[in-house]
Every structure is written in structure tokens, then in C-alpha cells.
């Protein structure tokens, strides 16, 4: 299936549901932030859902994932329970990182989810190392590394691309190009804005994908994953996308105009896919309403679970700094 | 066992690496010029030929990427030993060491341990000037989540690596460049070292001197000189700078009543500052004199020999500090 090929209804419905879960989760996070139930930096994935959902649906259970600080969508798409992610927003023991990480640092080793990394570019070397371990142990898994286009300006990006290609490591680099590194537009920070070309210069296959089209992302990722899994080394995908909301909850958005945001909103990945599925006869009003109701119930349940969660006693403050030996911290 | 077996600090480091590679198939060494070149300072000479390119991996000059790759690989179930040529170059990997290696266990609520060993050369004394000579172990010792160790004897050079590999957390091993030619007996080959404890290298009743690295040897030389004058100095080798074993130092100060801390790094915010503060907090009433400190002069280490010598800890400066706390 190419980008113009018909969408498989079963796949389309699965991707639609996954994107809607992320969208509604994020919208609830915004409300909870406004009501001060959750704090810290919160970076919402609204508008970019097709990227995480399309990519992660094409992975296997033995693969590893490294994400960025805008990681709620990746965590949910990877299969972390909405309860555990919401509990992390609340800083509760039941959170996927036990409340120590928060919004930017969701972890779940059981799902091969090695964190939101909040240093731009900082996750790339880590992903290279996870892939090195996968190859050395013969696990058969690959590592998928998400990062924004802003990371391309970091030295760690170039060092990691080179090392992964030099050693033929099984890494899928997924560059989420949402055009702005916080408030700095790509053309204001890069001498060459064709990021796939930069990646290709390291000797790996690299191509750009419409990151607002979940089935297209899924299709491209399936191709890329097959290549990476075959042992031929890393692949780079540049996923063109856009965040509909502010960079974080503090962002007054002085750097872009509303017309630009509206143009991208017209390409909303959820509405686009829903329309496609309606056209195929795979979705109708009743089906959509049922999906909305199911997701709303899951979000409500996650919030209730988080609010009822356990507050870790401050006596435990210094746990998890070092491995525990005989039950005590080092 | 060979009781007369004498090796250099460099050879001892190599024996530690060889034992580590031979003892666990998951272990591999990676870094700049560790393979074909044999290591910038010759530490890994011959290991590529002995263990092959999958176990001894030359990396590009990409400190952040190969240290980060070491972190990722450690998380992924193998046991990398990453070599960084010098502590000055480690600053190019500071993001990975401080923001990832030191934090992942905590940020993940205990899920992600990083059993990684990072070795690097530290210290001055070879006229290598200000970008190859610094002693920044105190910076790293500031960071929770890291373990920081400094082998200062031939036996520790051989054995500390094995202990570091057995540790479930990231361990930074600071190998002092001025000690590579140091000789000592290694009758049993590499023997694991207790990384939680400092150790008394020379007993004495009058003054405690705590040190590591080249400053330890300056302190031992000073103790020898002072002994001729009837002053008995107890020299404590700190060995591990984080977690700092102040209990061993406090126990020594209870016997001697006086403390001098000697270190190769700068005085401001140094190991001596930390140790002096802990002794002031927990051993104040055992002190008969203010704590003395000997450290590098507060200057980027210069090239010219007389200036470099003047910047560094020497037996004369340690002896002078000891006499000052006795007067």
C-alpha cells in the first residue's frame, strides 16, 4: 500500500482509535493542568498523533523505543496503560515511572519504552546503544528513536547518525518535523531544511513521509522496519507534522500566525482518517460515537485511578538513586 | 601466585581489562584508539589481537555518542567498558553522563539501571597543558547516581575494574596519567576491591592525610620525610570519591586529632572542601587544629615545567601543610 493506495479498513480503524485515545488524553491533560491537578512542563502531542501511532503500530513486542519529552502519545501508542500514564502526570506511585519522572519522562521497561528524554538530541546516543545491545545479544529486536527536527542542530544527532550507520546498527530514526524547535522555525536554524538529505549523507536510506496521514506513516514505517530488521543498518524517516497547540503550557505562541495553524488544522490526522473510513463505508456516525464513548470512558477511568493513587511518602525520597542493596539505598 | 611479580600501573590496568574481557562474554571495551593503536596511553595494547574487534571496538571521535551508546548498551543487557582518553574530553560527553547515566534509574522509578563502566585518564604532571591535564573527578563526585573511583596503586589499578563491572550502577574510574609508570607487586593478578571503603596506606599517630591519585603518592613521600623528623603521618587512600567514605577518615582523625586533605584538583569546591566540611560536621570535637588543604593552584595547568610543578601537589607542599596543622 502506498500513500495513495486504499486504506485497509481494519488497520484504519485501529489507527483511528489509537489517535483518538491520544487526542482525548491530551485534551484532558490540558484541562487538568489548568485546574493545577498536574504540574511541571507538559508538552501536548495534539496534531502529531499520526506519527507515533503510525510508527509504533508497525513495531513488534521485542523492539525498543526512545522518545522525547513530548512523549504521552508515544507511551499510549506503545501500549502503556492510560492509567499508568495519567498516574505519572499526577506524580503517583502507580505512575509508569513511579512519579519520579513526570510528563517528560515516561518509562516502561516491560513495553520496551526507554523514556521520554528531555535533552534535545540526548536520546539518540541511547538508542544507538540499545541497538548495539540488540545486535550483540542477537535479540532480533530493533530500536526506534523519536526526536524533533530541532535535534538535527545538535552534535549528538550527527554523532549518532554516523555511529549507527558506521556499525550497521538496527535503529529506525524517526524525525518528527513539526517545523518549530520551541519557537524557532526550521529555516531560522538550519542551513539546509531538507533533513532527509542530511541523514542520507551518512549513508543510510532516508525519506520524507506525510506525518499527518497515519496509514502512510504506517506503510513507510513497515518498509523501514523490514529494512532495519534485515540487518542492513539504520533508516531515517522525516515525518512532516505540526503541533496544533502551544509548545508547552507556558507558550504564548508569538512566533507563528493563526492562519498557519488553521491551515494545518485543516489536515487534522484524525478527521482525515475518519473521513477516509467513512468513504470506505468502514465508519458511520454510530461507530464514531461508540469510539468516542469508549475513549471518554477510558480517560475518565484513568483520571479516577490517578486521583485515587498512592502518594509516595517523603521518607522514600532517596530511593532509586542507586540500586538497592540488602533493602537499603547506597 | 607469584610473590615477586612486579608490574606497572599501566600493565595492571591492562590485566584488569584482560580479566574482565576473559571473565564475561557480555563485556566489551570501546573508545577512541583502544584497538589498533593500543590505547592512547598503551593501556589496551594487545587486547584487540587477543579478543578481536567485536570485544575491543575503536570508535569515532564522538564522545557523546559512544558514551551514550555505552549507556544504552548497558541498559540493553551487555556490559560495556567505555574508555575516554582524558577527563578533559569527557566534558564532550557530560550530557550523557550527567543527564542520562546518573538519572535514568531515578527518573524511571527504579526500572532502568545503568551498569556501565567509564574509564578515563585524569591529572597533570606531564607538561600536557590546560586541555589534557585537569583533575575534574570532584565535579563528577558532585552528582548523585554516579559512583566515582580512583585507583592509586598497582593493585587497585588491576582490581577496581572488576569491582566496577560488578556494580549495578554507572562507575567512573579515574586513572591518573602520572602514575602509568608506577611499579608495584601484583602477586595474585587482579583482585576485586571494596569500592565502599577508603583504606589506610600508612599508619601513623600524629596527623591524618587523606588523598587519592598522584596526591596520594606525594602524601606518602611527605610521610616518609616527616618520619625522619619524628612525625608519624597516617595516610588514607580515599579510593572512592562518591560515595565518599568519611567514616574511615573520621576514625583516623579520632586517633590523630589532625587532618590534611591533599588532592590533584582545584581547592575551590574540591574533595578537600567536602571532606573538611564532613569532618567539621561529624568530628569537630576530635580536631586539635583546623583542617589543612593542599590542592592544585587555581590556574589552568600550564605547559612550562617549572610553572606546572608549582601548580601541583608535591611532597614538600604536603609536608608543609602537615607541619602547619601540628604547629
List keywords for this structure.
heterodimer; A: 330 residues; alpha/beta; Rossmann fold; 6-stranded parallel β-sheet; two-stranded antiparallel ribbon; 11 helices; globular; B: 327 residues; 2 domains; 7-stranded mixed β-sheet; 5-stranded mixed β-sheet; 13 helices; 14 strands
Can you offer a commentary on this structure?
The complex is a heterodimer of chains A (330) and B (327). Chain A is of the alpha/beta class. A six-stranded parallel β-sheet of chain A has the order 2-1-3-4-8-7, sandwiched between helices. In chain A, strands 5-6 form a two-stranded antiparallel sheet. The longest helix of chain A has 26 residues, at 9-34. Chain A is built from eleven helices and eight strands. Chain A has one domain (9-329): Rossmann fold (3-Layer(aba) Sandwich). By secondary structure, chain B is α/β, with parallel strands linked by helices. In chain B, the strands form three sheets. In chain B, strands 3-2-4-5-7-6-12 form a seven-stranded mixed β-sheet, sandwiched between helices. In chain B, helix 11 links the parallel strand 13 (259-266) and strand 14 (292-296). In chain B, helix 3 runs parallel beside helix 5 and helix 9 crosses helix 13. The model of chain B has no long low-confidence stretch (mean pLDDT 97). Classes of the chains: A alpha/beta (330), B alpha/beta (327). The A-B interface holds A 64, 95-101, 105, 107-109, 114-115, 117, 119, 122, 124-134, 136-137, 143, 155-156, 159-160, 162-163, 166, 319-324, 330 and B 26, 28, 54, 59-60, 62, 64-78, 80, 95-96, 99-100, 104-113, 144-145, 147, 168-169, 243.
Amino acid at each position: 500500500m502506498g500513500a495513495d493506495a486504499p486504506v485497509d479498513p481494519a488497520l484504519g480503524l485501529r489507527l483511528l482509535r489509537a489517535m483518538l485515545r491520544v487526542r482525548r488524553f491530551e485534551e484532558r491533560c490540558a484541562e487538568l493542568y489548568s485546574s493545577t491537578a498536574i504540574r511541571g512542563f507538559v508538552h501536548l502531542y495534539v496534531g502529531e498523533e499520526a506519527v507515533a501511532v503510525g510508527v509504533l503500530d508497525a513495531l513488534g513486542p521485542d523492539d525498543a523505543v526512545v522518545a522525547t519529552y513530548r512523549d504521552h502519545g508515544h507511551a499510549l501508542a506503545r501500549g502503556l496503560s492510560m492509567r499508568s500514564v495519567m498516574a505519572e502526570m499526577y506524580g503517583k506511585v502507580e505512575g509508569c515511572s513511579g512519579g519520579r519522572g513526570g510528563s517528560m519522562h515516561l518509562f516502561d521497561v516491560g513495553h520496551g519504552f526507554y523514556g521520554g528524554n528531555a535533552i534535545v538530541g540526548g536520546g539518540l546516543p541511547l538508542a544507538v546503544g540499545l541497538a548495539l545491545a540488540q545486535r550483540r545479544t542477537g535479540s532480533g529486536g530493533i530500536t526506534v528513536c523519536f526526536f524533533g527536527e530541532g535535534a538535527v542542530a545538535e552534535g549528538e544527532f550527527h554523532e549518532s547518525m554516523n555511529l549507527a550507520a558506521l556499525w550497521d546498527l538496527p535503529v529506525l530514526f524517526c524525525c518528527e518535523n513539526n517545523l518549530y524547535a520551541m519557537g524557532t522555525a526550521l529555516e531560522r536554524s538550519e542551513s539546509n531544511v531538507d533533513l532527509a538529505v542530511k541523514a542520507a549523507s551518512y549513508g543510510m536510506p532516508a525519506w520524507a513521509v506525510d506525518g499527518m496521514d497515519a496509514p502512510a506513516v504506517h506503510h513507510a514505517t513497515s518498509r523501514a522496519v523490514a529494512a532495519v530488521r534485515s540487518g542492513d543498518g539504520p533508516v531515517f524517516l522525516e515525518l512532516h507534522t505540526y503541533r496544533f497547540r502551544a509548545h508547552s503550557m507556558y507558550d504564548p505562541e508569538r512566533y507563528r500566525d493563526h492562519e498557519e495553524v488553521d491551515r494545518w488544522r485543516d489536515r487534522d490526522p484524525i478527521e482525515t482518517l475518519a473521513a477516509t473510513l467513512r468513504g470506505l463505508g468502514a465508519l458511520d456516525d454510530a461507530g464514531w460515537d461508540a469510539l468516542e464513548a469508549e475513549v471518554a470512558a477510558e480517560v475518565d477511568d484513568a483520571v479516577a485511578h490517578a486521583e485515587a493513587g498512592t502518594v509516595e511518602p517523603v521518607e522514600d525520597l532517596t530511593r532509586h538513586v542507586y540500586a538497592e542493596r540488602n533493602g537499603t539505598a547506597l | 601466585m607469584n610473590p615477586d611479580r612486579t608490574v606497572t600501573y599501566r600493565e595492571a590496568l591492562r590485566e584488569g581489562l584482560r580479566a574482565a574481557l576473559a571473565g564475561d562474554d557480555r563485556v566489551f571495551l570501546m573508545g577512541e584508539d583502544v584497538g589498533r593503536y593500543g590505547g592512547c596511553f598503551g593501556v589496551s595494547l594487545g587486547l584487540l589481537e587477543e579478543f578481536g574487534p567485536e570485544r575491543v571496538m575503536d570508535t569515532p571521535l564522538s564522545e557523546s555518542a559512544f558514551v551514550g551508546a555505552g549507556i544504552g548498551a548497558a541498559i540493553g543487557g551487555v556490559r560495556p567498558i567505555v574508555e575516554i582518553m582524558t577527563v578533559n574530553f569527557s566534558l564532550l560527553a557530560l550530557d550523557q553522563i550527567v543527564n542520562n547515566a546518573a538519572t535514568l534509574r531515578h527518573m524511571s522509578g527504579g526500572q532502568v539501571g545503568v551498569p556501565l563502566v567509564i574509564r578515563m585518564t585524569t591529572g597533570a604532571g606531564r607538561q600536557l597543558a590546560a586541555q589534557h591535564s585537569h583533575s575534574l573527578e570532584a565535579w563528577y563526585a558532585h552528582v548523585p547516581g554516579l559512583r566515582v573511583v580512583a585507583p592509586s596503586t598497582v593493585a587497585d589499578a588491576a582490581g577496581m575494574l572488576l569491582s566496577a563491572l560488578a556494580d549495578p550502577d554507572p562507575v567512573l574510574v579515574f586513572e591518573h596519567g602520572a602514575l602509568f609508570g608506577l611499579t608495584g607487586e601484583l602477586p595474585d593478578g587482579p583482585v576485586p576491591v571494596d569500592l565502599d571503603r577508603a583504606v589506610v596506606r600508612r599508619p601513623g599517630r600524629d596527623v591524618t592525610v587523606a588523598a587519592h591519585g598522584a596526591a596520594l603518592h606525594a602524601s606518602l613521600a611527605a610521610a616518609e620525610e616527616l618520619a625522619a623528623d619524628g612525625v608519624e603521618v597516617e595516610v588514607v587512600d580515599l579510593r572512592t570519591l562518591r560515595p565518599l567514605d568519611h567514616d574511615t577518615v573520621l576514625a583516623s582523625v579520632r586517633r590523630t586529632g589532625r587532618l590534611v586533605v591533599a588532592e590533584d584538583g582545584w581547592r575551590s569546591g574540591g574533595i578537600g572542601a567536602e571532606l573538611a566540611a564532613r569532618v567539621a560536621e561529624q568530628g569537630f570535637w576530635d580536631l586539635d587544629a583546623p583542617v589543612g588543604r593542599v590542592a592544585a593552584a587555581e590556574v589552568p595547568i600550564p605547559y612550562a615545567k617549572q610553572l606546572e610543578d608549582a601548580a601541583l601537589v608535591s611532597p614538600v607542599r604536603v609536608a608543609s601543610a602537615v607541619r602547619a596543622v601540628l604547629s
